[in-house]
Amino acid sequence: MADVASLNKEVQEQSNLLKSLRTSNADANLIDEAKKRLGDLKKALGAATGTKDPKEGTKKKDRLLLKTPKGTRDYGPTEMFCREYVERIVKDCFTSHGGSCLDTPVFERKEILAGKYGEDAKLIFDLQDQGGEQLSLRYDHTVPLARYLAMTGLTNTSSKLWQVGKVYRRDNPVMSKGRMREFSQADFDIFGQWDPMIPESEVLSLLTSILTRLEVGEFTIKLNHRKILDGIFEVCGVPEEKTRPISSAVDKLDKLPWADVRLEMTVEKGLDPDVADKIGEYVKLKGGEELLTKLEEDSVLKNSARAQEGLKDMAILFRLLRIYKITEKISFDLSLARGLDYYTGLIYEAIVEGSAPPGFGTNPAVPPSQGTESAVVAPSKPAKKASSKSKAKSGDDEDEEIDESQVGVGSIAAGGRYDNLVGMFVAAASGDSKKVAGLPCIGVSIGLDRIFAILWPKWEGRGMRAKETMAYVISVGDGHLEQRIELVRELREAGIKADFYAKNKPKLPTQFEAGERDEVPFAILIGGEELTNGYVRVKEQRWQVVDGKKEKIQASGKGELVKRTELIEWLKQTETLRTWSSGKLV
Amino acid sequence: MADVASLNKEVQEQSNLLKSLRTSNADANLIDEAKKRLGDLKKALGAATGTKDPKEGTKKKDRLLLKTPKGTRDYGPTEMFCREYVERIVKDCFTSHGGSCLDTPVFERKEILAGKYGEDAKLIFDLQDQGGEQLSLRYDHTVPLARYLAMTGLTNTSSKLWQVGKVYRRDNPVMSKGRMREFSQADFDIFGQWDPMIPESEVLSLLTSILTRLEVGEFTIKLNHRKILDGIFEVCGVPEEKTRPISSAVDKLDKLPWADVRLEMTVEKGLDPDVADKIGEYVKLKGGEELLTKLEEDSVLKNSARAQEGLKDMAILFRLLRIYKITEKISFDLSLARGLDYYTGLIYEAIVEGSAPPGFGTNPAVPPSQGTESAVVAPSKPAKKASSKSKAKSGDDEDEEIDESQVGVGSIAAGGRYDNLVGMFVAAASGDSKKVAGLPCIGVSIGLDRIFAILWPKWEGRGMRAKETMAYVISVGDGHLEQRIELVRELREAGIKADFYAKNKPKLPTQFEAGERDEVPFAILIGGEELTNGYVRVKEQRWQVVDGKKEKIQASGKGELVKRTELIEWLKQTETLRTWSSGKLV
């Protein structure tokens, strides 16, 4: 065991080191060295498990490969403490904004997902046909929600639903940036007939609250409107049937220069170069309300009824966003197109400024948000591969070498209005394509793994704990198992999370070490004369990171003598426990 | 839309009605009538969607079947409010007992699951081979945990890990009893070298806390010890190679009479009838510590060293359980065997008394806990099918008619000590079967769907809300959209969950209705002279169930005038908000 386990651990540590070097933009030599060492360790591990050497075919078969599937990973205690925190904040904001929870199965009947994701359908995980239904793992939360709404006709109950859970895509993973094959998304959707742009501003206000409370760093929410975009295509002379392909090309402007996008439009998609140039003039525009004024005055756009509808929406939206006090987070960006066909109105995407890959800072107004071809926040191809179509063999399992340092976290949340999706399901179920009684919807998907990828280095830097245990009960001298269990039981019953060392007569230093490993703030000592007299000794301690290392701070010297019968009340009065009870993490 | 959706809704409502009739043991005629009506509705729905009539082959193909996969379901807002509550309590108990969280992927490499579940392996969901790894959905949390421990050699960090998540089994579902193909389990495991029975009593104390805090009703934790059981088989004369098959037969005693089990032993498994009868004398024993004394004095059992080891463990355990004050929940039951091979010491199973199916009450000491063949809480075959082996074609998708009223919820939690599972992984990975550096483990799995199945009728009876919204902001007169948004924004920022009606000029009754539908306790009215003078009017209301119907109770007549600037402080001082802040559900 020692060999494989300790090598595994070393690989993990080295991989973490490499990540933090990259995150902190360390010297290139240091990074190279760390990379080499990681490679060596991986080789050693391969040799130890006999799994990485294809020449030794027989040996390979004999041994079990201990790993998680490609693009997935385990999250251990410290990471889960952070992830649970993120989820708690997100859910709190969801319910603060009037949302109710929905939970759908992790797999759906295959035909439910069919025809919803365009060419990304190849990324869907299918279940094996074991007799019975054809099933697929869900690709996002939006399609299951639409299926649920079509099934229940839930127009008269809650109009705001949220879902938090994992979704699945057979894409090429970039693990350190939170681009996984199994990843967590938190969705919030508002449906029903409401007045223009009120649900839109509710969703944007929600997104702002979440990103602010999570302290992800400086962020921008890019906005655009499908009707304005389509109106631009119209007045520039894009034939109707080319509207969506040209829109897809525009969507790549966040990772490709205009020259490349223009080439795609003209050469690949056969657009008249003059038309492309006219589009180019529009889609480079970004800004705030002044851009809206400019577009409202644009005499060419006046010829498009669609564009005028979109502009009217945007004017209402900006007025509402001012009331919500979130205009400074907003960038009206005509290059934002979002890949999926089903958006019908406002579209948006949140970008964290600091999460761009190095070297991408040349045009700070255009952060690199890959992964916009999909409904929501997809774990898409890395930037450097974006233009090399021949290599984009998504879905295979060959290890492609991806230089993770060249990939940004990208967009951390995205969404838009999709007024026809539920209607599509209703029509398909009735067998009558004309019978589309739609249900207007708007939603946002938050990429929890990407948020985790951004928060985790900060969280580690602050040296956060992995547990909430508040009291560690320690025996001095004779073991006192019975007294320890009794005290722990009472503490737990009083809501004070407590633990003890599960041996009959553990040594004092061993118990202290165990409590300190979990950074338990209160060590409660029982034993000797004090125990006989009805007292316990309480030592308070806390930890902080000094120069990258954890240091213990003894808050109370030899500790305080507290009456055993008054201990629980005493603990509850401490600053530490009161802070913790108020929901703050210690 | 109207047709399918409203029929779907009717089917759901009728199905709920049928369930509550059964739960409340209503008159048989009433139940039959409700059953018939449900059948008619289902037929009507089938006709409307064109999916249930196999004669109309072409029509079937044209239409999309709007449903979740077999054995899975959606959980809507009210149900999720209850499920989230259950999860919160469970997690709180887990962290109270010193646990740290672990999260593993929903699928594993197929070879990781291979050879762990005996004949239940046929219930594993496999993913389709899409090029690359062979994957399967996880069957429980125990095997992924063991794989994680073998990979990381995590012997020096936290020794208590918990996981909450969905697991998957292609079994025949009984939905109303929480026996699903996709179901939620909450696991807690303790690993490492500790003194005898201390981890065991920690786990039992944890389980008792959880079931008590969740108010599942009267429950019993049945205990047995693999070494005692194996010792009994030894002294009765069971050949070593028949130990596990005979143990499997004993395990069925909770759903089959002794005569049937004896038949399985002698006819099917070729055991000497005299040996079977000797076993029969032991396995009918159950009780508390007095049973332990009886067994300690048993002169025949003295001949088995294994049995004596087990009895020694049980003596220590009973002493510890007294300190934890949970002996009255415990039943030492020699008929408990648990199906899986990998248990090596104490085994246990929690049963809720009230959840037995009707007609099973003849022997109250033997509650019907189906589903003990699996590692943990399995969604196993219903009682009436238990003995008809020929029909047990698990894994197919033909609709078997199951009379749900004849099936109990069964065991809601189960587990035991498994000291060799991690070692198995380590040995398999090293390719050296002798190199078993094991890691002693003990754990419990809690079946969250079964707990939900028990709690849900009570929860519904109490008329619990589906949301936490505390304030609904309502305009009187002129719409006041800006003022409503401003107030909602401020309330949310202050941590008071708030909402409003997303229209520009909604009618007063419409707004009241919307707030009342969500049972929001505070209606905050803005408008007119009061608004001009800087005041709002606050109306408090609450709901309670009277004779099965929800009734609104107006707590404050025409409401109170509160200064707009003092509103948030005023609300925070109310009893309602203080109760809610303390974590209690309103």
UniProtKB/TrEMBL annotation, chains A, B:
Return the Gene3D superfamilies for the record.
Anticodon-binding domain (3.40.50.800), Bira Bifunctional Protein, Domain 2 (3.30.930.10), S15/NS1, RNA-binding (1.10.287.10)
Pfam families, per the entry: HGTP_anticodon, tRNA-synt_His
Q: Which GO terms describe its biological process?
A: histidyl-tRNA aminoacylation; mitochondrial translation
Molecular function as annotated in GO: ATP binding; histidine-tRNA ligase activity; RNA binding
Report one GO cellular component.
mitochondrion
**Domain WHEP-TRS span(s) in chain numbering:** 3-59
Show the ranges annotated as biased composition (Basic residues).
382-392
Against PROSITE patterns, the record matches this protein to: AA_TRNA_LIGASE_II (PS50862), WHEP_TRS_2 (PS51185)
Please provide the record's keywords in A-Z order.
Aminoacyl-tRNA synthetase, ATP-binding, Ligase, Nucleotide-binding, Protein biosynthesis
Name the UniProt record assigns to this protein = histidine--tRNA ligase
Disordered: where is this region?
Answer: 361-406
Enzyme Commission number(s) of this protein: 6.1.1.21
Q: What class of enzyme is it?
A: ligase
The record ties this protein, via InterPro entries, to:
aa-tRNA-synth_II (IPR006195), aa-tRNA-synth_II/BPL/LPL (IPR045864), Anticodon-bd (IPR004154), Anticodon-bd_dom_sf (IPR036621), HisRS-like_core (IPR041715), uS15_NS1_RNA-bd_sf (IPR009068), WHEP-TRS_dom (IPR000738)
Q: Which reaction does it catalyse?
A: tRNA(His) + L-histidine + ATP = L-histidyl-tRNA(His) + AMP + diphosphate + H(+)
Origin organism lineage: Eukaryota, Fungi, Dikarya, Basidiomycota, Agaricomycotina
